[in-house]
Every structure is written in C-alpha cells, then in structure tokens.
Amino acid sequence: xxxxxxxxxxxxxxxxxxxxxxxxxxxxxxxxxxxxxxxxxxxxxxxxxxxxxxxxxxxxxxxxxxxxxxxxxxxxxxxxxxxxxxxxxxxxxxxxxxxxxxxxxxxxxxxxxxxxxxxxxxxxxxxxxxxxxxxxxxxxxxxxxxxxxxxxxxxxxxxxxxxxxxxxxxxxxxxxxxxxxxxxxxxxxxxxxxxxxxxxxxxxxxxxxxxxxxxxxxxxxxxxxxxxxxxxxxxxxxxxxxxxxxxxxxxxxxxxxxxxxxxxxxxxxxxxxxxxxxxxxxxxxxxxxxxxxxxxxxxxxxxxxxxxxxxxxxxxxxxxxxxxxxxxxxxxxxxxxxxxxxxxxxxxxxxxxxxxxxxxxxxxxxxxxxxxxxxxxxxxx
Length: 381
Known about the structure:
This protein is an alpha+beta fold. It contains eleven helices and 17 strands. The chain has helices spanning about 30-40, 125-135, 145-150, 150-160, 175-180, 180-190, 215-225, 275-280, 295-310, 350-355, 360-375; strands spanning about 15-20, 50-55, 60, 85-90, 95, 105-110, 110-115, 135-140, 170, 195-200, 210, 230-235, 240-250, 255-265, 285-290, 315-325, 335-340. The strands form three sheets. An eight-stranded mixed beta sheet has the order 6-5-4-3-2-1-7-8, with helices on both faces. The protein has a five-stranded antiparallel beta sheet with strand order 15-14-13-16-17. The protein is globular and about 65 Å long. Residues about 1-5 have low confidence and may be disordered.
C-alpha cells in the first residue's frame, strides 16, 4: 500500500502531465479519440506530456507521443491503445517503465494526471482513488462525485434529494430480471410509453434503446445488460428539446462559470442522440450554439447547471444535459437529464464546442483544466 503523503504547492519548472486514456469500458475508443485531441492541444513548451494508455485488458502502457494514431479513421475506424511498454505509477508518484528482461527505468515524477477516461474503470472514481492514494493531482472530479456521476441511478437519487427536476424512472437489476420479469413490465408500464432503456453506468449512448411498447422491452433490457447488469428505464421526454451546457470551475474558487447553451437536433434515421449521431458527422445531427431559447429559460438552464455541479460536488469541469419542454407542458419546463464529469474531448464533442462559442478556444480550455488541477492539493479538500 502506498504511504506517499499528499503534496502541497505547485511544482517548480515545467510540469509533467500524464494523459491517461483507453481502459476496459465500452468507451475505450472514444477515450482514445478524446486523449489524442488533448495531447495535441497541450503546449510542449509549457508542459512535459506523457501519454499513458490503458488496454482493454487493463494493462498500463507507454503510448506514442504522436496523437494522430488516436484519431477516428476516415471510414469511422475506432482507435485503440496499442503501446507495448508496461508502465506503472509508484509510491513516489513516478512513472516507471518495466520492459521484460530489462532494468526498470523511471520517467520521472508526475505533477498532474489528465484522466481522459469515459465510463467504468476510469471515470467512475476507481482511477481517481488510485491517484489519491499516490498523492498525485489530477484534472476533474474527485472519487465520490466521479462514482456518483457515472451511475445514472445514484445521480438521479442525489438530484431528487436536492429538489432538482428529473424525469420519472425505474431501475432493473439483474436478479430481478432473472426472477420476476412481470414486476419489471409493471413498473415500466407505469412510466407510460415510450421509454428509454439505458445501461446505468455506460456513456456515449452505448446500449440505449427507445421502446415504444411492451413487446420491445425484453430485447432492449438485454441489449443494455450487454454493457451493465444494472439498467435504468426512463420516461421519454416527448416533445422536449435537448440542450447542453458546459460548467467550468474558476481559478479563484468563485461560483463556477457556464458556457453558451447548445441545442442538439437529430435528423435522418435517428430517433435519439445515439453513438453514430454523436461521433459520425454525416449522420444528420445539427447543433445550434447558442441555442435559441427565451431568456428566462436560458437563465433557468444556467442556474440548474450550477446547482447540479455543486450538488454532485464536482471539481474542474462538467457537461450538464437538459430537456426543455414546450411552454404549455404540465410540470417543470426545464428538466435535468444528467451530468458528465468527464465529457468527450474529441474535435466534435459538445463541451469544447460550447466553450469555443463562449470565447475559450480548445488549447486554452485544456490549459485551464491543467492549471486548475495544479492549483489544488491532493487528499481531503
């Protein structure tokens, strides 16, 4: 067990930034694409950048410093971690390369980790816990907020406890599905159709299905269970507009800053904002930045975004997603969907695009996140 003590104060000289990406989750390739963009944006005159990939089997390896091999291919080919030199983080917060049959060599102390990880085994507090044990600063949310932010069920329960508006939902656990599908059908029917069936702890729209009637529920639950044994079923936001906003902590610790609001309009053959609509540009997805919203609605979105950010105790950054219902709808007009504690950082990802529209270009955004991480202590804070 590591006995490394938390450090305080910023490092002297050029900080060493380890960009960690890949991992065992279904979002492995999206993490690689995001990391390639981050690596390309980090100024080599200002930072010593070390790319560290985590394979789909969970091995840590030293990756190429050339981010081009992490890009989405011209025909939509997804990248993966391909490095072969094993690397580990020791108790002195140093990265060590240990090639078979060779004497281990150190790459030096890591000042900050940029964990460009999406989904379980990385974004969910597991990597953050490791970094806390090692006393290493890192970009983004801490252990608890990362864990809760990755689990859609617990996130919704926390928001409800804080009085924030969410859509009606029910949870389907593996044991219940195996033993009593009738009760699941009854709970889902009480939500009214259509519904969306989602893995509770996956992102990038993997495993999500729209279900328009009870006859399609079994297939949808089993598809979601391919990614997570715990499944969330949520009432569809019929007639609502989908909007998103970026939240960014301030260097002075004041109230977090919010970006321009973006609206997603999905066309073509897509009934919702699925994987292809998110990442493949030819899939007829339109983005309006800023979203054309009445000023009172835009203010409400900004207000709820900061409240959700603070309710989850997020640090650094988050993307907050909402549904905006028509003026004459019953119930609240703005409903919170979810918070992404490590949103996508690809060239087409919403978070960087919203901040670019707000006057913070991609390299400045990445630099600000690293500076925020360097400016905080490890351990309890």
